[in-house]
Amino acid sequence: MQQTNFKLKHITLAVLASLLALPFASVAEETVREAAAESSSEIEKSTAKVEEVELGKINIRATKDTGGLYQPANTTTGTKTNAPLRDIPQTINVVTKETWRDQGARSLNDTLHSVPGVSVLAGDGARDQVLIRGFSSQTDNLVDGFRDDATYFRDLANIERIEVIKGPASALYGRGGSGGLINRITKKPMFETLYEVGGIAGSYNVKRGEIDFNQPLSDTVAVRLAASVEDSESFRDQYFLERHLIAPSILFKPSDSTSLLFQIDYLDDRRVDDLGVPFRIGGPLNVKRSQYYGSLNAKKDDVIQTHSSGATISFDHVFDSGLKIRNVFRATDLDQDRNDTRAPGFTATTFTRQHTHILREDKGIFNQTDLMLDVDGFGMKHALLAGLELNHQDKDSWGSRFNVDPVKSLSEILCERSHTTIMSSNRKDSYDKDRPSHPGQTA
Fold it and tell me: Who contacts 125 (Cβ-Cβ below 8 Å, separation ≥6)?
């Protein structure tokens, strides 16, 4: 009974405390409401005093990160002006020197393996040759926009980048194939110091060295020298390659609006003219990839020797009106002595062979004059171009072909011993006996 009274006492006290707190809660709530109303009234008064201010427009533009060493943003081949690739309604692929250095490419054909729509051919073992979109582009090689259609292997030591145009381009470059063209952009002097030395060494005694030196001599004169030397072999029996290139240039720039550039290039290339594995209907013969079917002494009998030289003079000037004039003159000279032993056909019992000797001379002079003007009109920027090209080329060739000892059985040439027997010393007598007295005569 004592414990029950204690609980009732506490409950009574709690009820009394709650009743006493009710008036104070009502007062606090009323105070909060009055403060909120007063604050809202002050905000409205303050807002009424603020004048509206119109901010100026802000234009934000973003561009894709292009340019650099591997993805140039501009091209000079598509329009003969320095234009963004995105603005040219034609497919143009650009391969920079950094790309083919990373790939270890040592020839023009090597650099074009990664270009879509381009197929690399053997070129009879004597020249660069590709198909663009299935069309032959043997004569669609250019250097700095000038025709370079001679039959030889080009070196890359003095090349800055290679631009491949897909589709006809006769509007700017005259005669050409339907597939497109290949334009090599040469290295030119700059007003900054550059010294590069590089080399390649690999399997099959591959050895190649390159230098690229650029040096400003003053604020108005700069010189550049690109050169290479190569001495290599191959997985193909008896194959060898010996060549060297030297390409000096000098730039005079007396003012920001005028420049005069002189360039010279000389290439000496000597290699085995290797026509590869004989072919029959259905595909190549099922023989070793390394098997060579020419002379036993290929370094003496089956060699193609090429001497190529060129000189270029470029003049650029910008008038006060903004009109630009460019005149470029180029002269080229190529001599080639080609010898090869080939296997043009066979039967079940006989494998025929022929020796071919071809002499070529290729000379050309070219002159291009271009006028360029940038104008604004109809809310757009326009680049106007007008030009004239004059050129003259002389191409001469003399050839002879005569049979050499046939092979009695195809299986005989599948080993080194029978290969030696085939190309025995009496082959030299046959060469000397059947060789025409004049290279223009055909046996």
Answer: 272, 273, 274, 275, 276, 304, 340
Q: Which candidate, 313, 376, 370, places its Cα nearest to that of 82? A: 370
CB atoms within 10 A of CB 88: 15
Which of 436, 427, 372 lies closest to 402, judged by CA? 436
Fold of 188-434: Maltoporin; Chain A (2.40.170)
Which residue spans within 116-220 are E strands per DSSP? 118-120, 130-132, 135-136, 141-143, 146-147, 159-166, 180-186, 194-202, 206-216
- Concatenated DSSP letters for 111-146? HGGGSTTEEE--GGGTS--EEETTEE-TT-EEETTE
pLDDT band of residue 208 (cuts 50, 70, 90) is very high
Kindly state the tokens that stand for 187: 């290295």
Q: Is pTM, for the whole model, over 0.70?
A: yes
Residue 14: both structure tokens together? 């709690």
Calpha distance 181→140 (Å, rounded) = 5
- How far apart CA 417 and CA 167 sit, in angstroms, is 50
In angstroms, the CA 186 to CA 247 distance is: 10
Residue 200 pLDDT greater than 60, yes or no: yes
Produce one character per residue of 162-175: b if its CB has 16 or more CB atoms within 10 Å, e if not: bbbbbeebeebbee
CA-CA distance, 181 to 141, in Å (whole number)? 6
Tell me what percent of the chain is helix, strand and coil, each rounded to the nearest 5. Answer: 20, 45, 35
Which token pair is 236? Answer: 């193909």
- pLDDT by residue (tens digit) across 34-81? 666 666 666 565 555 567 888 888 888 866 655 667 888 888 887 888
pLDDT at 182 over 80: yes
Can you read off the two tokens belonging to residue 133? Answer: 């979109």
Question: Whole-angstrom Cα distance, residue 330 to residue 310?
Answer: 7
Looking at domain 74-184, its CATH architecture is Beta Complex (2.170)
CA–CA gap between residue 278 and residue 291 (Å, rounded): 10
Query: 405 pLDDT band (50/70/90 cuts)?
Result: confident
Question: What pLDDT score was predicted for residue 4?
Answer: 44
* Residue ranges per structural domain of the chain: 74-184, 188-434
- 233 forms beta bridges with 240
Assess contact for 170 and 180: CB atoms under 8 A: no
What is the separation of C-alpha 125 from the centre of its chain, rounded to a whole number of angstroms?
A: 22
Is residue 129 a contact partner of residue 123, using CB atoms and an 8 Å limit? yes
> Rounded CA gap, 111 and 226, in Å?
19
For residue 272, give both structure tokens.
């085995």
Tell me how crowded residue 20 is: count the other CB atoms within 10 A of its CB.
Answer: 9
